[in-house]
Amino acid sequence: DTQQLQTVEVLEGLKAHNDRAASHNRHHFDTAGVLVINLMSSPGAGKTSLLEATIDALKSNYRIAVIEGDLETENDAARIRAKGVPAVQISTGSACHLDADMVHRAVHELSLADIDILFIENVGNLVCPASFDLGQHLNIALLSTPEGDDKPLKYPVMFRACDLILVTKTDLLAVLDDFSCTAVSEHIRQLANPAPVFTLSSRRNDIAPWLDWLDTQHKKQRTPGFKPMA
Amino acid sequence: DTQQLQTVEVLEGLKAHNDRAASHNRHHFDTAGVLVINLMSSPGAGKTSLLEATIDALKSNYRIAVIEGDLETENDAARIRAKGVPAVQISTGSACHLDADMVHRAVHELSLADIDILFIENVGNLVCPASFDLGQHLNIALLSTPEGDDKPLKYPVMFRACDLILVTKTDLLAVLDDFSCTAVSEHIRQLANPAPVFTLSSRRNDIAPWLDWLDTQHKKQRTPGFKPMA
Ligand SMILES: Nc1nc2c(ncn2[C@@H]2O[C@H](COP(=O)(O)OP(=O)(O)OP(=O)(O)O)[C@@H](O)[C@H]2O)c(=O)[nH]1
Ligand SMILES: Nc1nc2c(ncn2[C@@H]2O[C@H](COP(=O)(O)OP(=O)(O)OP(=O)(O)O)[C@@H](O)[C@H]2O)c(=O)[nH]1
Ligand SMILES: [Mg+2]
Ligand SMILES: [Mg+2]
Ligand SMILES: [Zn+2]
Ligand SMILES: [Zn+2]
C-alpha cells in the first residue's frame, strides 16, 4: 500500500543520506591520514576497558583519540580522558546506534592533524550499529565470554560485517564451562567471514595480538597507494 | 525540510500502527485470561536459561508457552520445546526488536485457551525493544553481572520502562570484583523507577523470589476487576 511504499522510500532516503555523510567523514580521515576504527559489541562486553588498556600500551607510539557513543552519561569519555587522551562524547538520547552525522559533528571537535588512530566506541548493541557506515576504515566486533559462543549465529548481521572479532574476558573462562573459542571461529567461518578471531583479557592486560594487528593496520594505512575499504 | 517532515510522519505512522496491533494482541490475551510477560536484555544475559529453569519449576502448576524472538536460528525455541512446552520461533532477519505484528502472527500459532502464562523472549538488545509495545502485561529487564552495574544509567530507556529488574548470573559475583547489586537498585531509583530488583542464578537454580513474583502476578491477573497496565 501507499504507507508501506512511503516508508520504504523514507528509509532508503535516510540510508542514502547516511552513506553520503560517511563518505564525507572518510574523506576527512584520509586527507588527515588518520586510521579510524569502529568498536561494536553488546552492552558491557568490554569496549571501554579494551580502549583503556590499548591507550596505556600505545600512547607513547601513537597519537590516539576516541569518540564515545552512549545513550546517556559522559562516563566512558571521562574514563578515556583520565588516560590523558582526547575524547568526544556523543549522547544519542534514545538512538540505538551512531550515525555518520553524529560522528561528523564530533570530528569537528577534534584536531585530526594531531591524531594517528581514532577509535569510535559505538552504542552497545549487537544489531543496529552494523548497518550504519560512519566513515571508519575497519569494524571490530567484541564478544565477551559470558555471552556464550553461539552469538555469531544468532546475531549474524554484526558478525558478517566485521573485519576482526575479539573474544574478550578470557580470564573468566576458568569459571565458564560452556564457552569454546574454537566454536566462535567456526561460527564466523559459517557466516563466510574470513576475519581473524583473537582472544584477550583487558583485565589481565593480555592483549598482545590485538596490539600487533593495530600496528599492522596503521602501517598499511600509511603505505603509499593504500586504499581503505569502501 | 520536507524530507525530515516526511520521515517524522512515517515514523509516527509506524508507531501508531504498532500500538493498534499491540492493543489487538492484548485483547486476545485478556479474553483468554493469559498473563503475558516480555523478557528483554543484552544478548546472552540469560533469558533462555531463566525460562528453562522457570519451566522446570512451574510446569506442574501452570500451562506455559513461549514466543522466541531472534534474528536467526531456531536454537532458543528448540531449547524450550526440549522442556516439553510449546514454543513459536520468530525470525526477525535483520530487525533489532519484535513488533506487535510479528507477535500477532505467532499468537495465532498458539492455542491461547490452553495457556496460563505466555513468555515472550525479545531480541537481545538493551535499546530498541523497550520502545515497541507487543501487547504484554509486564516488562522484565535482565542485567547479567558481567555486563557491569552501570548499565541502567547508560541504557536508561530500557531500565525506565520495566516492571521488574532481574540481576542474573550471581554465581559469577565470586570472581567479579566491581559489581554491586546495591548500585543497580540505586541506579534504578535514580531513573525514578520503583520496580523491584531481584538477584538470581539460573545456573544454581537460585530463582525463588522470581517464582514468587510470577505467582503473585498470575493471581492478580485472575482477580475480578484486574486491569492490566496500558
Ligand atoms: N573479568 C573481566 N571483566 C572485564 C574485562 N573487561 C571489562 N570487564 C568488565 O566488564 C564490565 C563492562 O566493561 P566496559 O569496558 O565498561 O564495557 P563496555 O563494552 O564499554 O560497556 P558499555 O559502553 O556500557 O556498553 C565492567 O564491569 C568491566 O570491569 C575483562 O577482561 N575481564
Ligand atoms: N554463570 C552463569 N552463566 C549463565 C547463567 N545463565 C545463563 N548463563 C550462560 O550465559 C550464556 C547465555 O545464556 P542464554 O540463556 O542463552 O542467554 P540469552 O539471553 O537467552 O541469549 P540470546 O537469546 O542469545 O540473547 C550461556 O552460555 C549460558 O550458559 C547463570 O545463571 N550463571
Ligand atoms: Mg563503554
Ligand atoms: Mg535466548
Ligand atoms: Zn566536515
Ligand atoms: Zn488476531
From TrEMBL, chains A, B:
CDD domains: HypB. InterPro entries: CobW/HypB/UreG_nucleotide-bd, Hyd_mat_HypB, P-loop_NTPase. The keyword Repressor does not apply. It comes from the Bacteria. GO terms for biological process: protein maturation. One of its GO terms (molecular function) is GTPase activity. The keyword Cell inner membrane does not apply. Belongs to the SIMIBI class G3E GTPase family. HypB/HupM subfamily. This is Hydrogenase maturation factor HypB.
